[in-house]
Amino acid sequence: MKISTKGRYAVRVMFDLALHNSGECIKVKEIASRQGISEKYLEQIIAVLNKAGYVRSIRGAQGGYRLTRDPEDYTVGMILRLTEGSLAPVACLDGNADECDRSDTCETLEVWKNLYDAINQVVDNVTIADLVTSRKKRLENLDYSI
Amino acid sequence: MKISTKGRYAVRVMFDLALHNSGECIKVKEIASRQGISEKYLEQIIAVLNKAGYVRSIRGAQGGYRLTRDPEDYTVGMILRLTEGSLAPVACLDGNADECDRSDTCETLEVWKNLYDAINQVVDNVTIADLVTSRKKRLENLDYSI
DNA sequence: TTCGTTTCCTACTATTGTAGTAGGATTGTT
DNA sequence: AACAATCCTACTACAATAGTAGGAAACGAA
Question: What does the pLDDT read at residue A124?
Answer without folding.
Answer: 98
